[in-house]
Design a protein that fits this description.
This protein is an alpha+beta fold. Helix content is 34%, strand content 23%. It is globular and about 45 Å long. 16% of the residues are buried.
């Protein structure tokens, strides 16, 4: 049985460790002990914003096995609609391949509907072909070309 809950400050080190634990994350994150204050500052900004939900998934032993962030974006198009975005989805490496990712997305889809969003969107790095196939298997469609400008 998995439990979904909002992340707390004490979860931050585990979350950063999970985010840093892949080929791309390892090049941009700084998982050290002690953890840099910037991560705690970011957590406080996320936690204080009503349109942000940083969610952890725990197993029956209360271990964090997955994390993801949902952002609810109000905007004028779609008659003042709300767009939900899911990012930073990570399943702990020892729990991958067990269907947890699918359960995470089922929960996220229901949460987006609860918040009256008219769509759930995500971005994924083109260097993650397995992730792209997984998202497509869930029904996500590549309908737009995404662009980013890093500073």
């Amino acid at each position: 049985m998995m439990k979904f809950r909002k992340a707390t400050t004490k979860d931050v080190p585990v979350l950063v460790e999970m985010i840093a634990d892949d080929a791309l994350g390892s090049t941009r994150e700084n998982f050290t002990v002690p953890l840099p204050k910037t991560y705690y500052d970011a957590f406080e900004r996320i936690d204080s914003d009503q349109n942000q939900e940083l969610i952890v998934v725990e197993n029956e032993a209360n271990q964090i096995i997955a994390v993801f962030q949902m952002t609810f974006i109000p905007y004028l198009t779609y008659q003042g609609g709300i767009r939900a975005q899911i990012e930073g989805v990570r399943v702990h490496k020892v729990h991958r391949g067990l269907g947890i990712g699918k359960t995470v997305f089922e929960w996220a889809i229901n949460r987006a509907k609860e918040r009256n969003a008219h769509l759930l969107q995500l971005t994924t790095d083109k260097q993650r072909p397995d992730a792209i196939r997984f998202y497509e298997s869930l029904g996500f469609k590549s309908t737009h070309e995404g662009m980013k400008m890093h500073f």
